[in-house]
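Figure S7 source data.
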Amino acid sequence: MCPVRTDYHIHTRLCHHAEGEPIEYVRAAQKVGLSEVGFADHNPMPEHFDEWRMSIQDLPHYLEMVEEVRSTTGFPVRLGLECDFIQGYEFWIESLAGKVPWDYLIGSVHYIAPGWDVDNPKYLSRFRRFPVEEIWELYWKNYVRCVESGLFDFVAHPDLPKKFGYRPLGDLRRYYQPAIESLAKRDVAFEINTAGLRKEAQEIYPASAFIELAREAGVAMLVNSDAHAPAEVGYKFDEARNLARQAGYSKVCRFEKRQRIEVDL
Ligand code: ZN
Ligand code: FE
Ligand code: FE
Ligand code: ZN
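Tokens for the predicted fe (iii) ion complex:
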């Protein structure tokens, strides 16, 4: 039997910073030998919030696009959403969760403080104005809250604040440990996200030390590309799977109607 090969973190042009049509992403997935994909665009907010997510008016369009590419290609296409975890908006994620039969919801921390999405190049200069330790502390505190919220099936790009190459000195496991404890306790999975290889960080999210600790704690995982263009689907998945195997993983997970299913890595 062919192994299950998924990519569950794929964007659409509705978020205004991704390109291509859903069908082009599906064709790209077929070309690189994936057996299933999932779209997970940036979630709408109740009001205009920032420049890089779908609007609430576009949500029906998003659902139609995913349904359409599924029916025209006959390829397994899952329906997901990449949700920003922002304290005070839990009610909103809950209402989105109840509105649509999602296959999975991804929890992401981009905002470390109001008006500061840590991966936004617009605020790059803040990495030179604030101690990187403080930025990482804010980020990981929110990451733990994101996991603990119980709102999500898996969490995205665990060590995102390294995107531009700024990392605190020393052993970074001091930041990872509390997040991994929460993942284990709440039985939430995490993604190994190859987008970091396309950024200044030049490293998969998360670092291998995180993957090793997560494996020891029995946390489930999956491999994703965070594609914002069709050519990025399945990007460097061999590298990601090798990291996972080296850490001792032999299973990955897939999702259907918010049920987690473990399959062979
Ligand atoms: Zn994006
Ligand atoms: Fe993200
Ligand atoms: Fe994403
Ligand atoms: Zn993302």
